[in-house]
């Protein structure tokens, strides 16, 4: 049992690993022995995460990429491959949000959110899974979805649509790549203190969230580490693929 969650010898690529939630999950992977590539649009914040990991005894390096740009993702994949020789774990944690009402929503804004939350992850999976297959590497893809992916939340139309699409992508890829030994799952977080959530958290919305969350509190970013490490481990979750793992304080189980 002591080796069940040991990721020693594994390399993880954390797309959006410089964000609040992505960095916490990346640190969890590093704490369990994985070598971690922190990938984000902002090199400075990515390097800050790397510094924390290294100071804690881990191995990590920062890379720059924009998930809405295929060229930058290919460049990052090339650099990571040179650094580590390949990867076994892909964590997809980029995300953006908007509260624009549906009837006021412009297609430029819609496209921007979809490009980051959905299209960008599709492109990322194409690039990184293809390399895994070419190198005959088995492994784990972990997509970060949302409670709004199953029952859409008010005020966040495009975000909800993008995350519903991500769930479908997750299950499709799980079927597609199981024969290659590549598992694909999604984590469905509840309400966590990510920057994109703070923008829409007025007092009324917080009260509504608490009424619909049996544990009656927000999640802490570190509380996503357990599910992340479990899904990353080919020992602990070897027969788990196409799954949507809720880490939401009971939000998804609540009605009236």
From TrEMBL:
Name used for this protein in its record: SDR family oxidoreductase
Family: Belongs to the short-chain dehydrogenases/reductases (SDR) family.
Superkingdom of the source species: Bacteria
Organism encoding this protein: Niallia oryzisoli
One Pfam entry name: adh_short_C2
Transmembrane segments: none
PROSITE patterns assigned to the protein according to its UniProt record, in alphabetical order: ADH_SHORT
Keyword NADP: yes
Stored InterPro entries: NAD(P)-bd_dom_sf, Sc_DH/Rdtase_CS, SDR_fam, Sec_Metab_Biosynth_SDR
UniProt xrefs under SUPFAM superfamilies: NAD(P)-binding Rossmann-fold domains
Keywords, in A-Z order: NADP, Oxidoreductase
């Amino acid at each position: 049992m002591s080796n069940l969650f040991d990721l020693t010898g594994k390399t993880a690529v954390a797309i959006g690993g410089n964000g609040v939630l992505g960095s916490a999950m990346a640190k969890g992977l590093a704490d369990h022995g994985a070598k971690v590539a922190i990938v984000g649009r902002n090199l400075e914040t990515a390097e800050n995460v790397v510094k924390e990991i290294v100071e804690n005894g881990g191995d990590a390096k920062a890379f720059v990429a924009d998930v809405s740009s295929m060229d930058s993702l290919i460049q990052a994949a090339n650099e990571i491959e040179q650094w580590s020789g390949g990867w076994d774990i892909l964590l997809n944690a980029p995300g953006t949000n908007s509260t624009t009402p549906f009837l006021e929503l412009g297609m430029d804004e819609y496209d921007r959110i979809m490009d980051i939350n959905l299209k960008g992850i599709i492109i990322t999976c194409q690039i990184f899974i293809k390399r895994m297959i070419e190198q005959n590497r088995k492994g784990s893809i972990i997509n970060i979805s949302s409670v709004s992916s199953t029952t859409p939340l008010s005020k966040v139309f495009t975000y909800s649509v993008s995350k519903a699409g991500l769930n479908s992508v997750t299950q499709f890829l799980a079927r597609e790549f199981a024969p290659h030994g590549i598992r694909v799952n999604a984590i469905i977080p509840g309400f966590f203190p990510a920057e994109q959530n703070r923008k829409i958290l007025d007092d009324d919305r917080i009260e509504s969230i608490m009424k619909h969350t049996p544990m009656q509190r927000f999640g802490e970013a570190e509380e996503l580490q357990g599910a992340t490490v479990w899904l990353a481990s080919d020992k602990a979750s070897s027969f788990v693929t196409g799954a949507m793992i809720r880490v939401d304080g009971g939000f998804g189980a609540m009605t009236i």
